[in-house]
Amino acid sequence: MTLRGRGPRRGKFLSELGIVKDGALLVRRGLIVGVGTRKYVESLPAARAAEKIDLGGRVVLPGFVDSHTHLVHAASRAEEYELKIGGASYEEIARKGGGILNSVKKLRAASTAALQARALRALAQFAANGTTTVEAKSGYGLELTSELRILALHRWLGQEQGIEIASTFLGAHVVPAEYRGKPGGAERYIRLLTEVLIPRIAEDGLAEFCDVFCERGAFSLEQSRRILQSGRQFGLAPRMHAEQLSRTGGAQLAVQLGAVSCDHLEQINRADIRVLGASNTVATLLPGCDFHLGLKKYAPARELIDAGAIVALATDYNPGTSPTVSMAMILSLACAQLRMTPAEAITAATINGAYALRRETKIGSLEVGKQADFAVFEVADYREIPYYFGVNACVMTVKRGRVIYARD
Ligand code: NIG
Ligand code: FE
Fold this sequence. Notes:
By secondary structure, this protein is an alpha/beta fold. It has helices at residues 38-43, 78-85, 90-95, 100-109, 112-128, 144-160, 185-203, 221-233, 250-256, 270-277, 287-293, 301-306, 327-336, 342-349, 351-356, 384-387, and strands at 23-28, 31-37, 59-62, 64-66, 131-137, 164-172, 209-214, 237-242, 261-264, 282-285, 311-313, 374-377, 394-399, 402-406. The strands form 3 sheets. It has an 8-stranded parallel sheet with strand order 4-5-6-7-8-9-10-11. The chain starts with 22 loop residues before the first strand and ends with a strand. The relative contact order is 0.17.
């Protein structure tokens, strides 16, 4: 599956996978220099001296681009999972100091070495599941030193590891405990973000994007606007968590601000769908959250596709709402719950994810000039990738021409 052609994809173009039967790739210095049928690629003069890897009988596709993760955190929240199953809602748990604040407490107390080891383990699992690029958000530090520690780790991981990392500053995840319930506390925290953290992070080049959790109990529409505008002023492109548990108007604000993506979108209405459909802001859907939280209401993917929106899919890997690294599982949920076809889901997880990270000219499809980022699945037909669930059929993952995962 080459996914060749112009990105991003909307409407019926989400279904075009650019399948080549008995296909081949010629890779040189990490880039694709030839792609097409095996016969054609083998006839290229540059192919003569090339080392050959035979992947016959398997399916090769662009490495998944996971455009929404909370990669760096200290521990799981399995104890809350059990409470949720017992009937407690995500918001009730958060109000009692659980939720994001629980993860903040754990991260602040964790050593950098421990955070690093946990993130490395997760990245190895991402690679083993066919992912070659992940976006990573800070947001479990919520104070200067801890946020800088996370962002510096993003940079280190991106340099050390096979997987490419796009770094996002999410200081506006929630108002931290030490500012809560105090008069003017939220305001003081927002000023810390806009006057201290954002300028510092931009100056040190530690993030490309600025994100806000626009939600009841997190940040209001007006607060989100201020924070994202401040980020934009310092060169951090806006993206947003919007309309997950309640409708706030966040999606339309994201479009107004020219955000690269707005993510979640379970609660959007018809007007929001129209606005998103006419925009270049990617509608990133995260069905892993609804699945893990046991919620029945998934985002209206079909309506978004019909309205012409640029739909992407991501894991939202995080300890509170979506503890998975598996894009194949997200594809399964996209098919069964969002009613996307396997082809649409694969496009949303590759080239449209790349567009959501402003990397669509480098990754997300297998075309000459792009990075040789691809995954190999032990399946007979691409539809079997979402069809089988709860198993990992990825047998090899290659990033910039280098094998970063191979099943013995
Ligand atoms: O994308 N919604 C905000 N952030 C995460 C959840 C974070 C957490 O619960 O730790 C999300 O769902
Ligand atoms: Fe998230």
